[in-house]
Amino acid sequence: MSEKDVIKETRPRMEAVIEDVRRRLATVRTGRAAVSLLDSVMVEYYGTPTPLSQMASVHVPEPQMLTVQPWDQTQLGAIEKAIRAADLGLNPSNDGKLVRIPIPPLTEERRKQLAKQVHEIAEEHRTAVRNIRRDSNERLKKMLKDKTISEDNERDGLEEVQKLTNTYIGKIDELSRTKEQEVMSI
User: What class is the 3-26+107-184 domain?
Assistant: First the structure.
């Protein structure tokens, strides 16, 4: 195994962190309705917590409204309850066929809370990238100690891992900045 193999394994791990940050930021609410708002909602379905997306179709009929149409009509009440319990600041109503969720405009205080949540998500993922860097660096140092690579190769590997870390942390910063602007704009 060479330092190039360590770098080849590091890149997809960091890429997975970026995908996760995108997914997590998509669930943070902005002033507009988005299907991804309900991604984190888990509904108690016959005793099993089930993602809402696996038991209903979610639509955005207008910019300030979401509708949820369950495939099993008997689950309307459970879906409504789960959306309330998800602490998204949404108040669903059920008309017997589907659940309507009006998206209220965000207050300044709520915008600040959401911006703080975006910062927390970004910091969590920056830490994940740094942990991946640490693991890779430790593997490179162990390879040097075991004399499977030279000092020059170890140094090159450490530099490459640091470049990857800087690139991916930059991507996380950019994603969080964009999301924060979305949240703070009216």
Answer: mainly alpha
